[in-house]
Design a protein that fits this description.
alpha+beta; 2 domains; binds N-(5'-phosphopyridoxyl)-D-alanine; D-amino Acid Aminotransferase, Chain A, domain 1; catalytic activity; BCAT-like_C; D-alanine transaminase; pyridoxal phosphate
Length: 274
């Protein structure tokens, strides 16, 4: 495991965050999670492009160019020596005595590189159970902001009930998971919430839609409600860490056992890096 703070590599356990860090005091920053397969970061360009968009959305000036960021990530991977890794990186509005409005400070980049939290093959085959919860987040969920309190609370509710994910519902519409996007399949058509401000525009989500079209599976970016989700033929979540993960149970409803489309997409996704 290795970490990086401001301009240097540090030990993950080293105490490096000044108490007046904006990320620490306000959650004033943005982040990305990148999966590394066999030493190569997967869809790095897409993640860095989204980071740049999140930065622009909160009027944050990036401390490094994308080129420099890429070099720091590659150096971190080299130093860690971890081939199957997850890279967490964040940028905050810097260090300054506490005041709400933007300080006259430079943004701070930090990063950790660690062994990926592997998901059990049995869970990948059997699928997870999910619970539906009211989406109480703000209306700019397309920004990958550090403010994850609603996500953290939802994830805890799911975990304490033995569920794999919490799925948010806003005004009756299924939006996304606490740390994933969600898809439902009905009559051989794949549905997912459109890429509006109400969801994070997942990198995995976009890739899976592309793979579906390559397989001549119809995809509709169309919002659906919880009744639709509970009556669908198949459902799955996507994320950098989960990849394509089937949903077996929604609240108290068990979905059908056969999942031809989910299985096809999960296999095609895995094929991209193996
Ligand atoms: N979460 N929606 C939310 C709210 C997320 O936090 C994530 C990712 C996704 C999926 O995005 P992507 O396919 O680009 O990983 C959707 C990361 C993995 C996390 O917070 O750990």
């Amino acid at each position: 495991e290795i970490a990086f703070y401001q301009n240097r590599f540090v030990d993950v356990d080293e105490k490096v965050i000044p108490i007046q860090e904006r990320g620490h005091q306000f959650g004033d920053g943005i982040y990305e999670v990148i999966r590394v397969y066999g030493g190569t970061p997967f869809m790095l360009k897409e993640h860095l492009a989204r980071l740049e968009k999140s930065a622009a959305a909160i009027e944050l000036e990036m401390p490094y160019t994308l080129h420099e960021l890429e070099a720091i990530i590659m150096e971190g991977l080299k130093r860690s020596g971890i081939p199957e890794a997850e890279v967490y990186l964040q940028i905050t509005r810097g260090i300054s005595s506490r005041q709400h409005h933007y300080p006259d400070a430079s943004a701070v980049y930090s990063m950790t590189v660690r062994e990926v939290r592997a998901i059990d093959e049995k869970i990948r085959t059997d699928g997870i159970s999910v619970i539906l919860l009211e989406d109480e987040r703000w209306l700019n969920c397309y920004i990958k902001s550090l403010n994850l309190l609603p996500n953290v609370i939802a994830k805890q509710k799911a975990a304490s009930g033995g569920h794999g994910e919490a799925i948010f519902v806003r005004d009756g519409i299924v939006t996304e998971g606490a740390s994933s996007n969600i898809f439902a399949v009905k009559d051989n058509v794949v549905y997912t919430h459109p890429a509006t401000k109400r969801i994070l525009h997942g990198i995995t989500r976009a890739k899976v839609m592309e793979l579906a079209r390559l397989q001549s599976v119809a995809v509709k970016e169309q919002a659906f409600d919880e009744v639709f989700l509970k009556q669908c033929d198949e459902a799955f979540i996507t994320s950098t860490i989960s990849e394509v993960l089937p949903i077996a149970v929604v609240d108290d409803v068990t979905l059908p056992n056969e999942r031809p489309i989910t299985d096809g997409l999960a296999a095609a996704y895995r094929h991209l890096f193996s």
